Amino acid sequence: MGSSSGQPEFDYLFKVLLIGDSGVGKSSLLLSFTSNTFDDLSPTIGVDFKVKYLTIGEKKLKLAIWDTAGQERFRTLTSSYYRGAQGIIMVYDVTRRDTFTNLSDIWAKEIDLYSTNQDCIKMLVGNKVDKESERAVTKKEGIDFAREYGCLFLECSAKTRVNVEQCFEELVHKILETPSLTAEGSSGGKKNIFKQNPAQTSSASSSYCCSS
Amino acid sequence: MVDATSNLTPTQRYAAGALFAIALNQAQINQTQPLGIPAAKDDDEECENRRSEDRKSNSSSGDSVSDDPGLWVHEKSGLLRPVFRCLDIQPSAWLGLEETANSSPAKHHIGAFTRLLSEEASDASAEMMEQEMALAKAADAMVHSIQSSLSVDAKKEKHQEYENECREKYAVPEVKSKDEDSDKDKKETAETESLETGVVIIDGSHKPEVVEDDKSVEEVTLLSHQRKINVLYELLSACLSDKHQEVKKCTRRRKGYDARHRVALRLLATWFNIEWIKVEAIETMIACSAMALQKSGEMEGENAQSPTNTWAKWKRGGIIGAAALTGGTLMAITGGLAAPAIAAGFGALAPTLGTLVPVIGASGFAAAASAAGTVAGSVAVAASFGAAGAGLTGTKMARRTGDLDEFEFIAIGENHNQGRLAVEVLVAGFVFKEEDFLKPWEGLTSSMERYTLQWESKNLILVSTAIQDWLTSRLAMELMKQGAMLTVLSSLLMALAWPATILVAADFIDSKWSIAIDRSDKAGRLLAEVLQKGLQGNRPITLVGFSLGARVIFKCLQTLARQNKTVFFLSELVERVVLLGAPISINNENWRDVRKMVAGRFINVYATNDWTLGVAFRASLLSQGLAGIQPICIPGIENVDVTHMVEGHSSYLWKTQQILERLEIDTYYPVFRDIL
């Protein structure tokens, strides 16, 4: 996130959303991905936002990643962030079974309810595999869940950085394979999903105007 | 996190900060894209060009806020982060909020954050609830006291007298022509209208209902009235705070009440369905406690205070709180409150505060006081009030600049030294005697602190009289009888040659007119200088002017735009602008830049039959468009056609008030009511 000058050009801009229960490590995962560090983080307030540039093949990508709070009190908030997301990452903690069961009880339903993108790519991520001894959810269960919901699946550790980059890269690969999503995210087109400057999407101006 | 300095829980403050951020960003978008206007269907080339231009100026290729330092929500603008800081929102959450503010569609975020705000937090103490209620009651009482100070009827009557007097004196020719040649008149009017096919006159087309359909957020009904009041109170306190840690490379250089903040609060109040007068009441409450506290601080001789201490004290007390704590009785309250206010020369404040007590009772007041005191305002703003009155009225800069013979602010209305946080400057430009600088504005009911600008009265009276003399001359009368004037105007619009008779007439006015134009340009530059010096007390300003007065305002904005161009367009000073019958070329001036200097509404009022203006302004310039008789095709400028309301250029003297009332400048959205 530099200044406006020297801004690297990019071919695609994708919006990615991180959801899941409080404490499963969404923010840690993101921090691990964007700045290669691991830290004890306090619970996220509301939403956090980070940008990451990636190059996949020939394509330069800009990922705008929204990290939502898992805490119950912010639940109402996250609903408005689903719109327009090309990728959604559902995170659970492999050492806490409830965080896994809540995915089908709560989070998968939220996606169905709020996501505006039919083709949006979903990904299931089991975090904290470094704590293998405390594991409460088997990999098999994760795979089964992913198959049932039609989403990608990976197990990773934000702490040891195992599979962290793969998480995001696999997701992005899948998005790139989906034409409807790449069309939305293309930076050349006007349909920039974040572009909220209505100056470019509607032209109220002309209603003011004399025809020249 | 236990926090004794707020009536809201941390989560609620987070939501409040988010809503404010969204409002701020929306307000900036509305600068060029006012709400309530249906999007056009066809994309003609012109608009295409405009769009790419807007893209260039508004945002770079990136889509994150951090890539675009021109955004109001960007860190560099210094508008948002200090507010977050005052709301005690954790810095880690700031970036997310800024990005949220700039991510579409805003409506869903507004709904979600409003819901978050409405939720009854489990950790909210009974005391907080009580204080919340008390503050809301105090605000209501303040509204009452503001309203009772406006004696509407008497003013209306007075203005009616003035209108009749003026109409008798100056409106003769136009009125006559209408009476005599009503048939011809109609025909000609139709002709002029047909000349302007393609002009969509927004008159009446901006129905507030449309806007509501588009914008209303159902979640707002979940919010209690007192919660809304408290949120606005805390946000405003945070806006006024001078606890701005110096942000490096921050483009905002000024302390005080930023016009952009006020516009955002206005939008937020609109979302909340809160009448604007309530926000004004909150403004006054904060101003009063801030001023009183500052005074008491001075009296105690606490000189060795670090800024942080002062801030801590703000949050803790405010004189209202102090008074309530020390006594809790009426005596203690008035004694503690009124004394410093009176000592400071704010005698008028005492009754304002005094009226609160009987309405809500002494114990209620004590509760409200401690509620209000927990989030008091800022030293920067308070200190500016004392200077403000003298600041503007004391500006007799004529001698210093040498170019102008007269340039003086005159206080009008009864809102001075009342702790009002908004200033209105009214500029007349077509005057026959000195009192015409004052009279057109006197009937207006407004809760702002108001000043008129009296400038170059000699020259203005000369040119106005010359024009009037010519209008009443035989030649003009004759022309009017034939309905020729409207033809003249239409030929002007089409850049045709003028009839010789008119040219002669114009010569007659010309020399006086060009002097007046020159002076208005200079007065505009001077006004810009006054505003930049902060003589209005670093408070948001609303500028209203007609005829050459409108030109003064335009030139003022132009000067500001020129000086601020290097550091983006800073619309921090001017909140709203209304130009009526403005003698300003449309195509030769950079309206786009000028528009950006105004944070809120920018209204151009024009009359297609104002041929006086056309004649005075001359044909050569007319072919380039004239703001006073035509709409300005710049996105973000509201064009209001008042052809059916005015009978000629001089009508603005007595019609301005009515036009302003119909514009409802306290409304966030473009409005022009059909009926009063």
UniProtKB/TrEMBL annotation, chain A:
Any one Gene Ontology cellular component term annotated for this protein: plasma membrane
GO biological process annotation, one example: protein transport
Molecular functions (GO terms): GTP binding; GTPase activity
Domain of life, source organism: Eukaryota
Subcellular localization: Cell membrane
Presence of the UniProt keyword GTP-binding in the record: yes
Keyword entries, A-Z: Cell membrane, GTP-binding, Lipoprotein, Membrane, Nucleotide-binding, Prenylation, Protein transport, Transport
InterPro entries the UniProt entry points to: P-loop_NTPase (IPR027417), Rab (IPR050227), Small_GTP-bd (IPR005225), Small_GTPase (IPR001806)
Main location as per UniProt: membrane
Matches recorded under SUPFAM superfamilies: P-loop containing nucleoside triphosphate hydrolases
A Pfam family matched in the record: Ras
Stretches for region Disordered: 181-212
Topological relation to the membrane, as annotated: Lipid-anchor
Family statement drawn from the similarity comment of this UniProt entry: Belongs to the small GTPase superfamily. Rab family.
Described purpose of this protein according to its UniProt entry: Intracellular vesicle trafficking and protein transport.
Protein name: Ras-related protein RABC1
Automatic annotation (TrEMBL), chain B:
Highest taxon in the source lineage: Eukaryota
Low complexity biased stretches: 58-68
Pfam families: DUF726 (PF05277)
Membrane topology: Multi-pass membrane protein
GO CC annotations on file: membrane
Keywords for the protein's UniProt record, in alphabetical order: Membrane, Transmembrane, Transmembrane helix
Basic and acidic residues composition-biased segments: 48-57, 153-190
Disordered, as annotated region: 34-70, 152-193
TM stretches of this protein: 319-346, 366-392, 484-506
Cellular location(s): Membrane
SUPFAM superfamilies assigned: alpha/beta-Hydrolases
Principal cellular location given in the protein's record: membrane
Family per record: Belongs to the TMCO4 family.
Record's protein name: DUF726 domain-containing protein
UniProt source species: Eutrema salsugineum
